[in-house]
Each structure stands twice: as C-alpha cells, then as structure tokens.
Amino acid sequence: MRLMGTAEQIRTVLDGRWGEVRQQVRTELDPADFAPPRDLLPMDEHRQRTLDAVLRLAGTTDFARNGLTREQGGTDDHGASVTAFEMLGHADLSVFVKAGVQFGLFGGAIAGLGTQRHWDAYLPGMADGSLLGCFAMTETGHGSDVQSLLTTATYLPESDELEIHSPSLAARKDYIGGAARDARLAAVFAQLVVDGEQHGVHCVLVPIRDEDGTVRPGVTVGDCGAKMGLRGVDNGRLSFDHVRVPRHNLLNRYGTIDDDGRYHSPIESASRRFFTMLGTLVRGRISVAGGAGAATRTALTLAITYAEHRTQFHVPSGEREVHLLDYRAHQAKLLPRLARSYALMLAQNALVEQMHRVATGEEDGEDAQRELEARAAGIKALTTEHATQTIQVCREACGGAGYLSVNRFADLKADTDVFTTFEGDNTVLLQLVAKGMLTSYSDAFHELDTRGAFFFGARQVTEAVIERTVGGSIIQRLISGSPGRDGDAALADRGGQLDLFEDREKHLLETLAMRLRRAGGDDADSFAIFNDAQPHLLLAARAHVERVVLEAFVAAVDATPPGEARELLDTVCDLYALSTIAQDRAWFVEHGRLSAQQSKDLLGAVDRRCAQLRPHAQTLVDAFAIPMAWRETELIADLGDVS
Amino acid sequence: MRLMGTAEQIRTVLDGRWGEVRQQVRTELDPADFAPPRDLLPMDEHRQRTLDAVLRLAGTTDFARNGLTREQGGTDDHGASVTAFEMLGHADLSVFVKAGVQFGLFGGAIAGLGTQRHWDAYLPGMADGSLLGCFAMTETGHGSDVQSLLTTATYLPESDELEIHSPSLAARKDYIGGAARDARLAAVFAQLVVDGEQHGVHCVLVPIRDEDGTVRPGVTVGDCGAKMGLRGVDNGRLSFDHVRVPRHNLLNRYGTIDDDGRYHSPIESASRRFFTMLGTLVRGRISVAGGAGAATRTALTLAITYAEHRTQFHVPSGEREVHLLDYRAHQAKLLPRLARSYALMLAQNALVEQMHRVATGEEDGEDAQRELEARAAGIKALTTEHATQTIQVCREACGGAGYLSVNRFADLKADTDVFTTFEGDNTVLLQLVAKGMLTSYSDAFHELDTRGAFFFGARQVTEAVIERTVGGSIIQRLISGSPGRDGDAALADRGGQLDLFEDREKHLLETLAMRLRRAGGDDADSFAIFNDAQPHLLLAARAHVERVVLEAFVAAVDATPPGEARELLDTVCDLYALSTIAQDRAWFVEHGRLSAQQSKDLLGAVDRRCAQLRPHAQTLVDAFAIPMAWRETELIADLGDVS
C-alpha cells in the first residue's frame, strides 16, 4: 500500500530502525499464504496450513538466519529478525506462534544455550525447516516456577549418556507447541544430575520422533486438543520413560559434563546459572510483545475505520448523519487506546534496539543483560494486557458485525488471549520488574553506604536508580524546563507530565523498599510481609514501565522533523500521558501530587485531546500500514450501500 | 449435588423466590444433553445438536408455557420461566440463546404484540417446538436505532394483504438467530404503511420456509457463517422482495388495520406506540443478564476451585506450599469479582420478581413498566460487562490450562462476548437508564413547580426522584443510623456506604440536568451539548445501577436469618460496596466526599476483606450449586497427582 503525506511520515517514525524490513514483509510475502483462514478450518487442516506457512518462511526469508550470529551461520541482524517477526503479528497468529516456536524458542535454545558443536549440527536444519523442533519447558505441575521442574536428566557414566525421565504426571511437559504433531527434536529442560549431585535446570536435546514421524520408544506424546485460539499450533504433552541420549545432547554453554564424567560450569551459583540460561531466551518475550502490539493495531485499524463510516442515530435536527466516531463515548473508548498503542510500539522499537545492541555486544555486561530482561518483561506484560483489553473494546465498538469471524476480531481475540500468561505470566513478570527495581535500589543504597554517604536519604538513592532510558538528555531538559509539578500548568506540559510519572515511580519504589526491609528473615512472617506488599509491588512495576514507555514516546517525537506529523505525534503523546495519569489519578491526589480540582479537570482534558485527534484518527491508523490482505473484512463493504 | 451447612444456606438465599425451579433444572434435565460440546464440532453438527436440545426443552419442560398468560395457554408463572432460563446459562450457551430466540423473542413477540387470534394460531406450536421461528428486527444498516428501520410493510387494500419489502442492502435483516437454517416463521419488524401513510415500526409474521425447509419465494436467506462463539446458533440474513402475507399476520395489539383497510391504534403518538411495543420485549434483556450472570458464576467456580488447589511457588522457607489463592494479587483479581457476582445475582433476582409483578398485573401502569425497562437495561449492561471482564480474568487465573477448550473458558468467553452488544448495546442501554433518570427528575421538578414549590432546590428534587428499590425502609434505617458520610467510620458502616452510593448518584444527576438544561433547541449546538455530556451521562447511569444493586444486596442480607451464612453474606456485601467505591474513589475525593487519606485507606480495607473471605471462597462458589456436568473439566483432575 502507498501512503501519502502525514500518514507516510508517521509511518516512518513508527517503523523505526528496521523500517525496511517492515516494508519487505509488506510487499514481498504473499499475504494470502499468511492470512488468517476466512472460515474455521478443521483442526488438522489448520495445523497443516500453518506448518506449510512456516516452511515457506524458512525457505524464502532470512527470518531465522538474521537472528543468529556469524559463528552460528547467521547474519547477526537480530533487530531485523525480531522486527520481521513482529510484522507477522498482523497475519494469522498461528503462523506467528508456530514460527516463534521453531525459530525463536527451539532455535533460540540451541543458539543461546548450545556450543559450536550444536550450532553446526542443528541450526541449518532449524533455519531451513528440515529439522522441526519444540521447546519443552513448562510442566503440568510447574509453569512459572521453572526452577522447580521435576523432569530429570541423569548422567550415566557407564554408557556416557543422559537419561531423561518424567517421574510423575506433574513432571509431564505440557502445552508444548509442536509436540503434538510436527516436532522431531525437543529442547527439554530438566534437572541435571551428575554423580548423584543436582546441578539445577539444564536443557537437553531429545529426539521425540523419527524422520517418518513415528514417536520414539520411551516417549509418550499427548495432544492438548482444541484450544481457545491458535488452532493451527499443535500443542501437546511429552512424558519420558528413561529415555537415553548421548552426553553431547546437553546444551553445554553454561554447564557441561567433561569426558571424565565431571560437571563444570563457568557460573558457580546454581541459581545464577539458571537465571543466566533463562536470560538468553529473552527474545521470546520481546517477540510476544511485538505480536500482541501488531494484533492490537490491526484491531484498532478495523474499529476506527468502521467508526469513521458507520452511522448510528441521526442528530436531533435530523439532517446530519452522526458517525460513530463523532460520539464522545466512542472516542473515549478508542482514542486513548490508540495513543497507548503508539506509545507501546515506540517503546517496543526502543526495546528491540536495546536487544540488538546486547546481542551484537555493542552493550555488554551483566547490568545490560539484566536491564534488558526487566524491560522485556515489563513491556511484554503491559503490551499483552493492552492487547486483550483493546481488541475486546474494538470488537464491541463494531457491534454484531464485530462478532462475525469474517471480520477478524474472533481470531484476534482468541489467538492473542494466551499472550498474557505464556512466555511468563504477566503478574509474575511484573514481579520480576519490581525485583529488578529493588535490586538496583539496594545496590545504590549499598554503594552510597560504602562511600560513607549514609546520610543520604531515600530520595537521593532513587535519583540514582531511576536511569533514564532513551534520550535521557531530552527528558532531563523537559523536566527542568517544566513549570513544576505543583503548578496548574504541570499537566499541560510534557516536562510536568514526565515529572509526575517519574515521581510516582520513585515514591512507590521508596515506600516499597521501606516496607520490605522489615522482611529480613526466611520464615513465614517474611512471606506474609511480601505477600501483603504484593499489590504495592505490582503498582511500582507498572509505574516504572509506564514511565519507560512515555520516555520512548518523547524521544521519538523529539527525533521527528518539525511539521504536521510531529505535531500530530505530539498530541498523541499528550493523550497517552494524560489518559495514563487520569487512570491512576486517585493515586496522585492521595499522595498530594495533584489537587482534587486538577484531578477533576484531567478528565475534561483527556476528552478534549480526543476531540482534537478525532479528525486525524484515520490518518493515525493508516500510518500502521497494515497490508490490505491482513485486514480484509466485510466491515466496510456492507456499509458501502448503507450510508 | 448436595450442599451442607453454610453453603446450603447461602444457596437458598441466592436461589431466591424461584429456588425450586432452579433445583428442578439441576436435577431433572439430563445435563449431558445440554452440556457444551467437549470438542469443537463442525458448525452444522453443533447447530443440529443445539436444535435437538431446544426441541427436548420444548417437549419435556414448562419453560415456554410458564412465560405465557392463561389466555395465551400458559401458566402465568413468568418468574419461573425466566429463572429456569437463567439456569441454562450454565450449560451450552448456544442452547441458551437458541431457546431464547424461540421461546423468548419469537414467542415473546407473538405474546406481547399479538392478539388472541395469533396466540391461538401460533403459540402452541411455538411452545412445543413444532413451529420454529425467528425474530427479525436488526438490519445491516440499523441496530441500535430501531426506529429508523428500512424494511417496509405496505398494506394493499385490493388483496387485503401486507407487502414486505427490503428496499436496499441496508434494509437486510442481519444476525437473525434461526434465520440461516431452522426458522419457518419470522417476526419481521417493518415500517407500516397504510394508504400512503407511515405509522412507524410494527411486527408482521412472515413465513420464510415451507414445512420441508424450502425457502419461500421472494425471500432471500443468507448465512452469517462462522462467529466468534455461539456456533450452535444459525444466525442469518433475510431480504424480502415484495413478499405478500395476509393482513391478519400483523401483530396488532398496539396498531391494527380494520376490515375497511384503515389504521387504528390505542396509542396516538407513533413514538410512544413504538416504545410501548419495544417495552413488551423487556424479558429478552432480563434473560441475557441472567445468562451472563450464570456463565460468570461458572467461570468463578472453576477459577476459584483451581486457585484453591494449584500451587505456584514455595514459600521462601521451602516447606509450606502456597496455593494460588493465598496470594494477595490473586485474591484481588478474583474475590471482588466474586462479591460483584453475588451483588448482581441478588439484583437480578429482584429484577425478575419485579418483572413477574408487572407481568401478572400486580404492579400496573406506565411508571411501573418504565421503571422495569430502565432497571432491566441497567442490570443487563452491568452484568454483561462484568461477565466479559470476569471470565477473562478467570481464564488468565488458570494460565495455560485456562486456554484449553476442555476447561470451558474458551466457550464461556466466546459465547458471552456478544452479550455486551446484543439485545441492546450496553452504551445505548446506559443512555436509556440516564434518560429515565432525567425524565423522573424533570417530572419531579415540574410537579414541585406546579405545587408552587419553585423555591425547592435541586437537592429536594433528587430526593424525590431517588426512589429506593427494595426494602426501602431498611435502607433508610441504615442510612439514618450511619455515622454520617464525613466521619472516618462512614466507609466501615453499611449506612455510610449506602449514603455514599446515593450521594454520588444524586450529584451526578443534578449536575447532568443542569448541564443539559442549556441544550434546549433542536439544532446542532444542542447535539454538541448532549455529546459533550455523554461521558457524564454514562457515569450517572452507572452510579444509579450500582446503587440499585447494593440495595438489593442489603435487602437480601437483611432477609437472611442470623447465623454464619448471614455473616458471610454481610462480609461479601462489604467487599462489593468497598471495592465499588474504591474503583471510583477519585470521584469521591474530587467531589469532597472522601478525604485523600480515606481514599488511600480504602485499598487496604478492600485487601483486608479479601483476606477475610479467602478461607470461605470455596464455600461461596459451592453455593452457586452448578451441576457437575456443566463444570466438568480437567482443571482439577490434573492437579490430583500434582499437589
């Protein structure tokens, strides 16, 4: 599709650093191959169609190879890989997820946890689709608490093999994409036992099917059957009954068994080793956030285009037709969500750039990795939550038409639904974010302490902790130039808004740290203190991520050349900032950050921004530049004759 | 199922006046016949299965006859009819909706809009299932604005017939349940034209298929095809090309054509006539609210039972297992929603009783009817919104397991999704509620004025308007005995809570009326004023319905004999009241009803109520007494071996 003028300028801002990759996907993939099925297919037919699409991707694109380093046979263009993948989020999400399993999870485990031997042996087949794999982490008994997995991988010195075993039903691998039908090789996460000693969770490659598809001896495969959505993905279950594989099937980058049958690891602490291994898999979360964002933009494009054309009632005077989007309530449903989608997309772009820098070694070290993981967790949680809520609102905004499968909301909703709980449950991920914040906080405290600066207050500590994300200098300039958070003008000023976001985060973090300091020991009381603070902790995490997202938006606006596109983006940014503050305005009043009157005025200000953006709503969704084949519906067709 | 002790006592409170009917459904229907399909069936198979279930209901129960008066061949037990129907909301919702179309909408149109002639000719076949019908109101071009329908019914004096015609694609009847496959007779809403004069929308019975299923000449039938959910319902489209039916096919209770071809109506105003006709169909909305409530209770039962058994992490000390429901964040997700479900169920019971009184003539007159309609609209809007949000939260609370079709959330979500926009879009319904409030307000103003009481302030007017719903005297006693809304104790006191709910409603209504008074004329400015006030108007409606719901809860607790059940219900009521205030606490602070400190403390108070109810959560869902066959899943089965 060709866009003109402002929409085209905004597209280039949104498309970001890998905009060319986006344009390639838009123009070079045959959309029909990847479009969601127009009718509900029988499950097996949908699975075959999905597999075919993934094989076509493997055969005709650089998706997989871009995500590998040169030693791994790739091009080291990690950002391109993840961005192309994000674009698939506009298409059939079964393809998105199945490709994610093959290239992202299965391929990612081998690339991230394996060594040259594994890269040479498996990555070419992974990338060209001749070796289909799956990623067997989650168990029936343990999802979020991966560290407590029950499957075992026991080293047998006599035969120099590893024995993979599922000791109970709880140890069964569950919901594993690819396990039910297509995967031949499984990356199995299991407790590694060498010479009677447990070394924690490691990943072992276990063949589960022969070339002809026959399930291997000792492996039991189950089918998760019908699911709410993602019906093209063959999720299944795996149990292992003393299945033996060669020792070298252990992906041994972070823990290996030498020729003498002894365990070695470059990381001494079992717990740190475990989290390092998990860290290499961060791309999965980033991709899920990307796909959720893309699906949300599809929904908004449909609902806003519909609202531009559909009439409901006549104005009292009878003559003029009122389009749905003219109603304040309809604007209030869709436009703040559109603004949040913009904000999250720009934050996602910044996240992908950060991931690319870490993957290429441009940013290095434990801190960079930890920050990336926390950011990925936070953006994933907020973007998938936003997707679930927004696609719902968009469906309802299209009434009965929105309920028909042909109009896409059915699959958008059902397919993305699981995004809030897979690749990390959102609640657990936000806890991870808060944990990261607390760690930085206590590190900073400790550092100040050892510098003899014990007289510093909590405020100084948080100042040190709240690292600005992107364009730190712009943010600082805006905050310094703001009229101050107490003045009535604060809300209308970008610096004042930034200050409010930051201030909320600081306050929540400081008070959280104080609250948890009381929980020193390892006993039940300590659990009770943590548990009572859980809602507080989740708020702090959310405040943090919302601040990071706002900063990404501000930086992107700042980088846009002056003109209509920039002005429009600035107003969208305003709507994101104001509607986010408005949603939590009780907090700001309760903590003396806003007066009751300011809080009250906020709702009117949000409504006014919506009214201001209303004439540009179509431009703003056109700028998403979603290929027509992926948003072809009957929504507008039927209206042609109607209005 | 047999419940004991407290759960059983609570069950009788929740079951309400038609508890025996609920027990009959629980024990006498063969649940397997009505259970949702375990696997996704091909569409036509699901449609056949659904039809079979509806025919079985028609053959073996009094569902349909209970909803008819004695003149109509029924038993006049309207409350029993609607209550039995509500129980089907726990089963396959395709059956619920298809039965609703046949007995509620199609049957209801004939019963409510027809006369003895139609009752005799059609109701026996409607009730025993030998005459399948559909309800053809919505058009492709008009959903909410029924008054603007385009289909015409023109009287032809020469042949004494009515000619039904669809002049455009926009006039096509759309989303009509039963039209695609099974219905033989359609109740078609069309603009009646007699002797060149338009008389507004009337309902005409139009045969669309012969006995053998052949579509009748002049009728074009389309199939809406796959939908997000309700796949057992054959929604379709109907167009009419000058189709002629006898004059007597006009359902002529409110408007008739005499033997001389002249139009008569007992109601002069076309607009009032139209709204009177619509009013007879109020039962559809009540039933949708009932079904949504039932489906929500199924979801809560599943998610809370799962959370009682499922463990996630260990406590830091390692020994004790923490069940999901022990986490504060998990409690915060589920328990306030459980409390709201209780509140809405008790309000629904009160609504059904009110409907029964109006239907039997125990309550009479235009005011009673108008109040019933407004209440039905409000409860429908809030209950279906609650259903969509809560079933979502419940799915997420069960993680990946919640995503598998076998665990029911897939169909609960997809099937109920359309409830927020059919039988009246929720936004439009809340506007209807607000309109009713404003009418009462201006009536009261006018009345006071004519009594020379022009010096009365707005406050006195609203006092007169806010009629207490049920147990008015209890409510009044509680408010009078409260410590006053300013005291810190107000929030902990039921009277204080009631006062806050009522006060919010009054304030929103008064200020809304003032705001709209400026919009006197019929011009574009007037539309702008209304439009700008739309968010305010929706808030007022919501505040009204939430107050009505709280009063129903309070009255039900008051009617419960002292003991553990009553104490538990009282705490649940507290949680509903506090969490509802907490959700809108910014408003209360902005309008000086709560101090910033009170507002802040509120969140802690909600958390404490959740903790208090946590040990009783299983009892509270057991009291819903949902037949096992309708909540059979693998959720708990898999855990047996796990924990």
UniProtKB/TrEMBL annotation, chains A, B:
SUPFAM superfamilies: Acyl-CoA dehydrogenase C-terminal domain-like, Acyl-CoA dehydrogenase NM domain-like. Residues 279-437 form the Acyl-CoA oxidase C-alpha1 domain. GO terms for molecular function: acyl-CoA oxidase activity; FAD binding; fatty acid binding. Residues 134-243 form the Acyl-CoA oxidase/dehydrogenase middle domain. Belongs to the acyl-CoA oxidase family. Residues 498-627 form the Acyl-CoA oxidase C-terminal domain. InterPro entries: ACOX_C_alpha1, Acyl-CoA_Oxase/DH_mid-dom, Acyl-CoA_Oxase/DH_mid-dom_sf, Acyl-CoA_oxidase, Acyl-CoA_oxidase_C, AcylCo_DH-like_C, AcylCoA_DH/ox_N_sf, AcylCoA_DH/oxidase_NM_dom_sf. Its EC number is 1.3.3.6. Its cofactor is FAD. It comes from Janibacter melonis. This is acyl-CoA oxidase. GO terms for biological process: fatty acid beta-oxidation using acyl-CoA oxidase; lipid homeostasis.
